[in-house]
TrEMBL record:
Regions crossing the membrane: 178-198, 315-336, 348-366, 386-405, 434-452, 464-487, 640-657, 677-695, 701-721
Signal peptide segment: none
Compositional bias (Basic and acidic residues): 782-793
Family matches, as PANTHER family: CHROMOSOME 16, WHOLE GENOME SHOTGUN SEQUENCE (PTHR42101), LOW TEMPERATURE REQUIREMENT A (PTHR42101:SF1)
Keyword GTP-binding applies: no
Pfam family, one: LtrA
Name of the protein described by the UniProt record: Uncharacterized protein
Taxonomic path: Eukaryota, Fungi, Dikarya, Basidiomycota, Ustilaginomycotina
Assigned keywords, A-Z: Membrane, Transmembrane, Transmembrane helix
Compositionally biased intervals (Low complexity): 87-98
Annotated region described as Disordered, given as residue ranges: 1-98, 111-136, 735-793
Amino acid sequence: MTDENMAPSALTDGPNSRIAHPSTTSSGYRPDRANMSTAIDLTASEERMYTDSEPNIAASEASPKVTQADEHPGGWDAPKPLEKQVQSSSHQDCQQQSDSIALLPRHSHDALRSGPLEQGGSRNHDQLNPPESHDMVLLSSNESSHAPGYSDLFFDLLFAACLNTYSNAVSLERFSNVAAFLGYFTAIWWAWGSQAYFDVRYRRTMRHQPFLFNSCQRVIRAAVLGLWVAFSTTPSEFSRSSFTNFTLIYGCSRMALVLDHAVVLLFDLFRWRRGQSLLHAAGGDDIYHCDDKLSRLPSQRTTARRVARNDNMAAIVRTHLISIASLVASGLFWILSRLLPRSNGVTAPLLVMWILGVAIEAAAQIVNELSDVLSPLGKGVLPERLVLFGLIILGEGFTGIFETLNRISPGAKLRNEALGGAAIESGGWSGDTILQAVSCVLIIILQFGGYFHRATGEINCASVTIVLWAYIHVLLHMSSALLVIGLKKILSFQNTLNAMSKFFNNPTIYLPNTPPWQDLTPEQAFQPYNDGDGTSPLSTNGTLSGISAIISVIQSNDGANIPTLDQAQKMVASVVGLAGGSAQAQSLVAQANASDASNALSSRFAPSLVLPFKSFFEFADNVVNPDSINKYTVKSLFQFKYIYVASAAYLSVDIVIKTMQSSRDRKLRSFRWAMALRFLFACVLVLLQVVFTVFDGAPSAAALDGALAISAAVLLAELICQQIVDGLQSRIDRPRAPKQRHSKLNWPHSSIAAHRRAQSNGSASVSDKDGEESIEMVTQHKRADASKQHSSH
């Protein structure tokens, strides 16, 4: 069989079919419209022609020798080489992405849209019917499968590394620390969000792309990954209110995104010019013999009316140029902020430059979406990327809690020979610690369940609304990140408090078996240290210095271990040597008491030396300026001043997100009930937060032990109420018959009116009957007169 004879039969070979000429008659072949590159409205009769021709196609394929004229009644020539290239690129674009994974549920019609051929080779409804114009647009590299690629997942994991690094370095003990954390998180989130927006909107899949273009994309992606690794070195700057390296790295990330836009723009220009040349060589704008994809960019919106190609190209180039200009301006703002005069903390000019840079980038994205040039975002993978970001934060919460449990749990500890060797020193580990750990894990699980409840992967909104919807996620992710860090610190605080209570309840177990120490009662050990009068391990009072040394070790290791007096004194001796001797240590104690500095000793060393030995330097600073129990409790109670409001913010922002993402759900009564219940429980959490914030002094042990359990109970009750609403959804959402209004006060008037209506209806019926009888009588008289006249004639 020759190539010419094979060419027509290849036109009907499934997804590799080529586009037929319009001159084909009804008995001939109709094209597979799933592979067409233009939005052409075909009538129902044409669909029947296509389906009726499939048996003929199968018969023609079964025939070993068929002439070209028989297979093409219209007498048209074999497809041109351009058509082969058209169908090759179309088939490649329609392939399912194998390197992706879906995270959110999709509607059934979306599953059919990208589904394979049914049994028997028949095509589904979406393949037979031409999709809408925006369905023909390649929104992103993974739009066909609606899932982020594995490279996107790998890129998002770098954020987890940055968040993990910062959560270990940050100290949330006052509002200034929380403000610094929120600023760092917002900047990191925006750096990630702008990159994710570019990936969804402009990045091309590396399959079937030119080698040079793929190489440029890989090089830029590697540079971006390197910048994210550099971001992991900046959390220490926020702890010391210095942001020189962070601003430089962030500015460089903007320039890397500029290169990303430039590479895609050059590739699109090359592709457009190549398509124009092929169109010109094909002899005009023939939609059946040319590939519209070669002249239409993957991120471009198609319309029902074909507009000028040059105008389309100019609009796409304009969106790239707007993005590039905004990124350059933002990068310059961040980089030039390093030249401002430095002082402790963030100054107003510095903050204005940062906010202005981010605002310019956001405004550019909104302007591009309002231009109505780009394809819709509703069916892209942006919701999936945001969900993945939230899962990373919750996963980081699990990581922090598990690391804390591993550090304070007694499972891997050695037996304490001083205590008899039979028992394992457990520190502050007790049933209360287990309760706190269970509460922490339950809170994170309930946050996960609350976010995915009524979640969907498709947003039926305009693209600019979807961009704003994505911006709101920064508040959701910020509250979640703040909560998981607070949970980890509260767990450590509770274990430390339990360890100190265990020591003061029975101090003789950890003290030498000599009369001065064994005669010490719990009240004598507790009261001097609790006064907060400057007692430290370096005190001249041997008893007080010994007790203070033990307490300093307990506070430094999060209550994981209660050392003996000999172990604690050896560790204090190492701090004296680090300070330069006993005289230098005593001067540091006096300086710390005067200024209440919490880092009197560590501030004398370079940060690069302090960070690798962070735990030891924290212990050294605590030896120089120890905290009494009340002072330590009050300082650590700040963690309780934002966990409730963080959970409430999480629920409140989730209400806004769920309300914006689906106009159909907003009309359901069950959805409104569910959101109202969620808002009610958010208000309950806010009230609990007010109680913890307004209360002055150290709360009771029961209040501290039950704080996390109460928060978990509120979230659990909210989830149970949501499940009840789901169970009653069919009853709540069913249509209700309109109720008739009856007035009990005016019932005599209503009855009289009803009687009058009945009488009027009765009289009308009587009159109708009378009218019918009169008509019948007149008719009979006419018939009688007519019969008389007939007989006379």
